[in-house]
Specification:
With 255 residues, the chain is of the alpha/beta class. Helices cover 31% and strands 21% of the residues. The protein starts with a strand and ends with a helix. Bound molecules: NADP nicotinamide-adenine-dinucleotide phosphate. NADP nicotinamide-adenine-dinucleotide phosphate is lined by residues 6-8, 30-32, 34, 49-52, 55-56, 72-73, 75-79, 82, 135, 138.
């Protein structure tokens, strides 16, 4: 059975490891190409956009894909929308790994906003020291709030985008560590953390550190993300794929 996994997440990498030596499935992993040096993967990997719904549909048909697993990031809503539309058009089974959101704990001071622009507004008029834990493309919104000092943590340099004048970059990728995140926020004298509600353990330590230090978190809400059959983990994808395989064998026998 030929599988496409839409990736870019911890769950996609976990699923890649689970499927790598499984000869029942010929799996391709697809990455958007957002990071310059993605972690090596144990599966054949293609990188870059498909060219919208039509491009994805063509790719799925050309590669005779039998099932798709959407393991994209909770904020990658466009890719998910395209996956739902293309799979519907081709009548392909689609399952989506949906990562649970972080929930507010006692002691958290979250300011919930809808967009990066609203996050920049929520920092207020007075100059503050702000930790931006965001993707490269979301940083542009903070050019509109130039009064603050920013420390931005990204995987790669930001490239040619508009940025606020007082910004320093720290290049790193998760998983992060509780004690180090606490030390980092304290050393940098951070007054606000700006984050997406990504969920999962790898990037949660900054949220726990902010709680411990009494630092407010400007939390950018998740977009609505269309999905296929909802799965809660990479491990849950395997029984789903096995069910698709069994269904295929049954329908072939009955033809
Ligand atoms: P998006 O807005 O859903 O996707 C934009 C376009 O990128 C898609 O239409 C598609 O291009 C291409 N694309 C996205 N995921 C792909 C994949 N797995 N394989 C092939 N092409 C893919 O997603 P995004 O722009 O990547 O990211 C949106 C948000 O998610 C940001 O907040 C970002 O920080 C966060 N995020 C993304 C990733 C990631 O790996 N993409 C990882 C961590 C966080 P075509 O229309 O040309 O097919």
């Amino acid at each position: 059975m030929r599988i496409l996994v839409l990736g870019g997440t911890t769950e996609a990498s976990e699923l890649a490891r689970l499927l790598a030596d499984d000869r029942r499935f010929a799996t391709t992993l697809s990455l958007a190409g957002r990071t310059i040096s993605p972690r090596p993967q144990p599966l054949p990997t293609r990188i870059g956009g498909f060219g919208g719904i039509v491009g994805l549909q063509a790719w799925l048909a050309d590669h005779a894909i039998d099932a798709v697993i959407d393991a994209t990031h909770p904020y990658a809503d466009q890719m998910s929308r395209h996956a739902v539309a293309a799979c519907q058009a081709l009548a392909l089974p689609l399952a989506s790994i949906r990562r649970a959101e972080w929930q507010r704990q006692d002691g958290d001071h979250w300011i919930e906003v809808g967009t990066p622009q609203a996050a920049a507004d929520a920092l207020g008029k007075d100059p503050a020291r702000v930790f931006l834990s965001l993707g490269r493309l979301e940083l542009e919104a903070f050019a509109a709030a130039p009064q603050h000092h920013y420390v931005a943590r990204t995987i790669d340099p930001p490239g040619d985008i508009a940025l606020p004048p007082d910004i320093r970059f720290v290049f790193d990728r998760g998983p992060f560590d509780d004690a180090k995140e606490r030390a980092f926020l304290a050393q940098e004298r951070i007054g606000f953390v700006v984050s997406k509600n990504s969920g999962g353990a790898a990037t949660y330590p900054k949220i726990a550190a902010a709680r411990r230090l009494g630092v407010p978190v400007v939390m950018i809400a998740r977009p609505a993300k269309p999905h296929g059959v909802a799965l809660d983990s990479a491990g849950a994808a395997l029984p789903w794929l096995e069910a698709q395989l069994a269904h295929r064998s049954t329908s072939r026998r009955s033809v």
